[in-house]
Structure formats: structure tokens, C-alpha cells
Amino acid sequence: MGDDAPISPEALRTFVASALGSQGVPAEDAAKVAALMVEADIYGYATHGVFRLRQYLARLAGGGCNPAPSVKVAHQTAATAVIDGDDCLGHLAMAAASDLAIKKARDAGIGWVGVRRGNHAGPLALYVRPQAEAGLLGMAAAVGSANHVPPYGGSDLLLGTNAIAFSAPSDGPDPFVFDMATTVAAMGKIKTLLQQGKPMPEGWMVGPDGKPLTDPARKSEGFLLPIGGPKGFGLSVAIGLMAGVLNGAAFGSDVVDFTNDTASATNTGQFVMALDPAAFGITDFGPRAERVFDEMRASPPLPGHDPVRMPGEGKTAAAKARMEQGLDLKPALRRDLEALRVEYGLDASLT
To answer: What is the DSSP string of 241-261?
Structure first.
């Protein structure tokens, strides 16, 4: 496998599905998860796409993730539901949650679907973009898959990166899609820097002495920093309450480190929301939103700054180019995928 030639999305999906299938994941589920993992790379979320394959395979092999789950609705009302993922690959539960939230929003104006007994599911953007493309507003959040953050002013690791995402339709080429961790940097970015042999910028992590930590190989020694100090801490706790406690899922000291412990069920908690503007009497949300976005883009940039761009801007065109021209994976990731092919005896190849 060369280090420079683009890889077609179809070849990458086949490879990932083959890898998951080698651990007992049924073909239909493997294809669905592979498609979402590759979609993450297509839309530019490389830290949460195929890069995560090694972790998922390790959890399947270790018994912490159920290869053949029965994902089901455990409880529901007209506008809400909780999905029990049966320790599935997290993409399966979150895709089901997104689909159900959209259906409920069509019927009741809003759909809010929680997930318990899930697992890491890639970037939340995957589960809010469909809402925007359907003319709805979307929101999703997740309790992080490991605790890397202490409560503000404390020193016990009781919080994760606890991400949150929003989406909205517009009349432009791109929907509004905003996906962020509640830490200065997501742990996935640090792991990719480690894989590539690059240092972290100052301000991402501090060591137990409170001094900046820039060596990604020492990430387990330090603390991730929340965005905005106590504000990021408060937002992270709020997400934990809505995605974890509300769903009967893990939060605080109950969170299992899904990388270091591959045998234990994580009971990862997430939620997905869909909201229909028509429920508020708004039938022209897209044009209204695009007018505001245009105003923001027209704001003269400060000296030394690029022109204003909206969250999600340019992703549709970039995704189309990657689908047509192939994906340029980092050499370190290509080497890791080749190593996985050998380790798991896969027939599929990326060449």
C-alpha cells in the first residue's frame, strides 16, 4: 500500500467492514458502521473516523463490545425515547437514535432520543447533519469514553471531553453544523499527534504540577483543560446529566476508559434531538438563517484574520471532492491499517 495514492471511499468501507466482520459483527451491521466511519473521514473528522478502527477491534476482541447486539427502544413517549444499545458498536445505537428523533420531530414537532449501553460512535456531526438536510434543527451530545478532566479546581479525573453538536438548515450550499468537545482539544487530536510523532500545543493539557504538557506520549499523566475554565466545566457537567444520568448511563466515576479497558461494558450515554421549525410556525427557517449567515460573512475581518466563515462551511464541497477523488490518509494511519490487516488476517486490501 503506497503512502501517497488516494484511497477510494468504497475500498475503505470494504476494508473496515471486513475488519469488523472478522470479530463477529454481522455483515449488515459491519457495513453500516463502516459507512459511518468513512463518512467521518469524508467530512473531515479524521480524528473520529477510520483512525478509531484499532480501538473498536480491540474492544470487540476483548469482549467489552457486543458484536451481535439487539438494539431496541427501551422506553418512549410521543416525543421522547431511550434506546438500549446492548453494548453495541456505538454507531448503531446513535444512527437509530437519529432516525427515531427525526421521525418523532415530524410527528410531534420535537424528538429527543437518549442512548444507554452504547459505545464510542465517532463524531456527533454524523448524527445531526441528517436533521439539517431534512429541514430540521439538530442537537446531540455524549459522555466521553474516558475521563481525562478534573472538576474545575479539583484533581480527580471525573469528566470526559463530553462533546456537543448542533445543526440547522440554510439556503446556502452547507447546513450549519457545529461539533465541539468541552475541552480545549479532543483526546482524538492528541492521539493522532502521538501517531504522527508531533507535539501538542501548550494550553491543551497540564501535568499534575499544573505546568503545560506538550508530549502526547505522556497524555495519561496529565489533565485535559476545559474550554473557558469554569464555563466549560459547567457545560460538561450539564451534558453528563442529559446524556448520562437521564439515560441511566455512565457519568463521573462510573465511566470506563474504553481504550485501556477492552473487557468491560462502558454503558456510554448519548442523546440526539431533532426539532421541526414548523412546530413554531416558521416555514422559511433556511432563508432566514442564510440571511443572518450572510451578514456575519460580510463583517470586515480584523487585521491578520481570515474572512468570517460559518461552522460547517465548505464541508459539502470538500466531501464531494473526497468522494470523487479519494481520501488522503496520513502515512501513519495507512501503516496502522496495514498492520491491522496482518494482525487480523484480513483478505480485504486498500491497494
So the answer is: IIIIGGGT---GGG---TTT-
